[in-house]
Design goal:
Blueprint: H1 11-27, H2 36-58, H3 62-88, H4 94-120
Helix pairs in contact: 1-2, 1-4, 2-3, 3-4
């Protein structure tokens, strides 16, 4: 992690950003655009995945980063549930559901792997590097 200078360099953040864009595309077109509560929840949870990765990274501490990654992973689960509701309400096709659902699974696995890596790392974070 020492060579990564910005959250924008993290592959998991890049994938979360793409997912948020994919979600935005479906919530602004078709019948989902008028299911205001579900649309807003999906927009929020998809954005929360990438935003929590960014916020955790910027806090410069391993423990805080892990906490925010957990929030991000939770948001991925929340979005999966919302995708189920969108499918059940016939807002999206099975094909689109499968595509987006699988992306949330992939991102969740990446987040879990990243959390495991951080837990095993002796690096405590930039805000601790000058402390003895």
């Amino acid at each position: 992690m020492a060579t990564i200078k910005s959250f924008e360099d993290l592959e998991v953040w890049k994938k979360a950003r793409t997912l948020a864009k994919d979600i935005y595309d479906i919530i602004t077109a078709g019948s989902l655009a008028t299911d205001f509560r579900l649309r807003d929840q999906m927009n929020g949870s998809s954005g929360s995945i990438m935003d929590n990765i960014a916020e955790g990274f910027e806090r410069d501490g391993k423990a805080e980063f892990i906490t925010f990654l957990a929030y991000s992973k939770g948001s991925a689960g929340e979005l999966r549930s919302q995708l189920c509701r969108a499918l059940d309400r016939n807002h999206i096709t099975h094909e689109k559901f499968d595509e987006l659902y699988n992306k949330t699974i992939e991102i969740g696995k990446m987040i879990s792997g990243f959390m495991d890596y951080l837990r095993k790392s002796e690096f405590k974070g930039n805000k601790f590097k000058d402390r003895t």
